Amino acid sequence: MGRIRILSDQVANQIAAGEVVDRPASVVKELLENSLDAGATRIRVEVEAGGRRLIRITDDGHGMGRDDVLLAFERHATSKLRTADDLLSIATLGFRGEALPSIASVARVTLETATGDEAAGTRLEIAGGKILHVDDAALPRGATIAVADLFFNTPARRKFLRAESTELAHVTALVTHYALAHPEKHFELLSATHTILSAPPVARTAERIYQIFGKDTLAQLLPVAAELPLAHAGLPEPPPWKKDPDEPVRDPGALRLTGFYSKPELQKLNRNSIYIFVNKRLIRDRLLMHAITEAYRNVIPPTSFPVVLLFLEMPPEEVDVNVHPAKTEVRFRQQSLIHDFVRDSLRTALIKARPAAGFLAALDNAAAASPSLMPPSTSPLPGSPESATFTALPDDSDPDAFQTASREAERFQLTPRMPSPVPGKLPFAANGVNPGGWGDRQAWGEAAAALFQPASLPPAGDCSPAAGDAAGTNPGVETALVEAEQAAANLNHLGSLRPLGQLRDSFILATGEDGLWIIDQHVAHERVLFEKILRDRQTEKVQRQRLLMPMLVELKPWQMVVFTQIADELERNGFEVEPFGPQTLAVKAAPVGLEGGALERMLAEVIEQSSEDSDEPRQNEDLAALRGRIAASIACHSAIKVNTPLDHVRMEWLLLELAKTSHPTSCPHGRPIALLYSWKEIQRAFHRI
Ligand SMILES: Nc1ncnc2c1ncn2[C@@H]1O[C@H](COP(=O)(O)OP(=O)(O)OP(=O)(O)O)[C@@H](O)[C@H]1O
Ligand SMILES: [Mg+2]
Fold first, then answer.
1. d(CA 542, CA 522)
2. Which residues line ligand 1 (CB under 6 A)?
3. 439, 433 Cβ separation under 8 angstroms
4. Which of 376, 147, 117, 111 is nearest to 268 (CA)?
5. pLDDT of 623
6. pLDDT band at residue 478 under the 50/70/90 scheme
7. Among all ligands shown, which has an atom nearest to the Cα of 145?
């Protein structure tokens, strides 16, 4: 007898479950996506014991008829795909026909559903892949799927589950993300004791952000919208001689980007506050992550991350979603086009908005970049390790690494810890949630605030969205939105400010329409020089000055290696350097303005920075990064220092020059340049309003 056997469906499903279902959050993801695919407008997610004991999702989508109910748990049974060609343009979130059989093979599942067209609905019970009961039941249109005792028959997998509160945090992150992508739908997340999230439908994403993260976060975000008509479709066209002449010419469609990005003053410690949706599918993607980092290059420090909510829409043929079993990764057919579109749209938006940093907000944010909007080490995407692409934390499938990650995470846990859910049965039908309202305010305050509020926000209650009524009728939402828009004072009028004088010969005080400005003279000049150096380098117009005496610089052998790699670029930036013995360089000329000790420090700095491994995926960007580093370093070492008296003319000149820059918000290393003590804040502080 041969050795090879065909696996039973049961085993095959459990293997598939290994890829698709690895924690309660991944079950929630699959079920939520099914509800969205079914056209639901209202989705309620309930979890007990962090989802380990029970996950129940109720939706008002189109539901399933009896025949479909039985088929839905068969492997490769789907209503979303018919032919292999359909795979090239998938418009639904699911398409593999794997989720339900996989989940049912490792849990006890009850499905209750009705289409509204048939006389009766259907109730099906299935445990460990075996159907136990199928009955008629009187049910409203839609579907309720309860998944109990996850991994009850696979103890090895159960062991890998984390504490209930951790699992709940992952579920919460996930539901939150889908709620952000679908502001027009009603989302609720309930634990056994709390309403964790209650987001009634709203018209705009901005209102959803307000519902979920509160007013202060919204005030720090700016909207972005851009569109790029595609020149050609990503899929290869048949050769002209194979083309049917009668076939209409296909419109390749367009790339569309909408979303929100943070002002440079709002900085996060990790990438967990960057949310990327492609055709409303939450994904992790290295390419887009890179595009976002590029957009913020030399605007925020390289070690900080912005908050970005990015919704990319494109024709389904442009993106291959069938590259990962959990459907969390995609492959774009026109990769560089999309990368550059995202980078340029964000960068242009940043340059146009030139958001001014508020003095008080900067006080909160500047001390240390605040943690992400989500709890530390929580990835919205269950499944594959986050470390490689998503966060700087180690792979959390490795228990040791996970402990380190938890310890790391602990350090950033500035918000109160979320209380552990109290065990108990969920009073599903009769719980006290006010439909259409903000839900249980107390619960929000305790659980959601801990999860969502950045550290810089005042305690829940002051600014918690719970302070309002139902979204639709809450005047607070509109006021907050208007306030956020008004609050976006910008730096366009920097040139018309009236300098009053200096504070300790280091900060320029200036007045304008918006209020009192405090400008850091060193970083302001640094920004001016930085952009000039990059411009001059671009047009090959760098001005160099000969040194009276060549300056000798001693280097260590490894520094010498780095130097030879960057020598050409240094020369193009105005340096004339020759080897003077095996470990010594003779600098004969340098960029104008850079002298003596500053010149030596600048060279050492650039060599040091260039020796650090860069993980840039593209070579030309390596060069762009190097140019940026050199320009930033020259600018920093030749800019006006603090403790330098400036006369009126020089202060005016500096403000005018700063006004002309693209990013007067922050220096090339990410520090704020100009802070505004707004007229409103001043009036408020003096109790005049
Ligand atoms: N909440 C729901 N409402 C209506 N129909 C549903 C619901 N959930 C699942 N279905 C039906 O059951 C089928 C199987 O669901 P399942 O999640 O296993 O596969 P899929 O969504 O087609 O693909 P994937 O495995 O990629 O999720 C779906 O194609 C859909 O027709
Ligand atoms: Mg599905």
1. 22
2. 30, 34-35, 38, 59, 61-64, 72, 77-80, 94-100, 143
3. yes
4. 376
5. 83
6. low
7. 1
- Predicted local confidence at residue 422, as pLDDT: 34
Q: Are 188 and 195 in contact (CB under 8 A)?
A: yes
Q: Specify whether the CB–CB gap between 317 and 361 falls below 8 A.
A: no
**CB–CB of 262/213 below 8 Å?**
no
What is the model's pLDDT at position 637?
A: 93
Crossing angle of helices 619-638/521-538, nearest 10°? 130
The pair phi, psi for residue 133, each rounded to 5°, is -145, 150
Which residues are within 8 A (CB) of 327 and not within 5 positions of it... i.e. 6 or more apart?
A: 33, 93, 94, 96, 281, 321
Ligand 1 atom nearest to CA at 78: 29
Task: Give pLDDT, residue 641.
Answer: 92
DSSP strand pairing (331-332 vs 544-554)? unpaired
Task: Say if residues 20 and 34 touch (Cβ distance below 8 Å).
Answer: no
In the prediction, which pLDDT does 479 show? 54
Tell me the CA–centroid distance for residue 388 and ligand 1, in Å.
30
Task: Quickly tell me which residue has 């030309």 as its tokens.
Answer: 620
Helix (H) or strand (E) holding 444: none
Residue 93 has pLDDT above 70, yes or no: yes
159 CA distance to ligand 2 centroid (A)?
26
Angle between helices 648-660 and 521-538 (to 10 degrees): 50
Of all residues in the chain, the percent with pLDDT exceeding 70 is: 78
Query: 306 to each of 81, 218, 268, 323, 627, how far by Cα in Å?
Result: 37, 13, 6, 27, 22
Report the alpha-carbon distance of residue 388 to residue 375 in Å, rounded.
19
Amino acid identity at 477: V
Query: Distance between CA 55 and CA 34 in Å, rounded?
Result: 14
β 308-313/254-262 pair status: antiparallel
Cα dihedral 284, 288, 290, 296 sign:
negative
Confidence of residue 227 (pLDDT cuts 50, 70, 90): very high
pLDDT band at 672 (very low <50, low <70, confident <90, very high): confident
Amino acid found at 45: V
Pairing of strands 254-262, 221-229: antiparallel
At 618 the pLDDT is: 45
> What is the whole-number distance in angstroms between the Cα of residue 62 and the centre of ligand 2?
14
Average pLDDT value for the chain: 79
User: By alpha-carbon position, which residue is closest to atom 12 of ligand 1?
Assistant: 72
Ligand 1 mutation target, pool 37, 144, 328, most atoms within 8 A of CB:
37
**Pair type for strands 274-278 and 308-313:** parallel
SS3 readout for 486-501: HHCCEHHHHHHCEEEE
**132: pLDDT strictly greater than 80:** yes
pLDDT tens, position by position, 278-330: 998 888 888 999 999 999 988 888 888 998 999 999 998 899 888 877 788 88
In degrees, to the nearest 5, what angle opens at C-alpha 219 toward C-alphas 213 and 221?
A: 85
Pairing of strands 498-503, 507-512: antiparallel
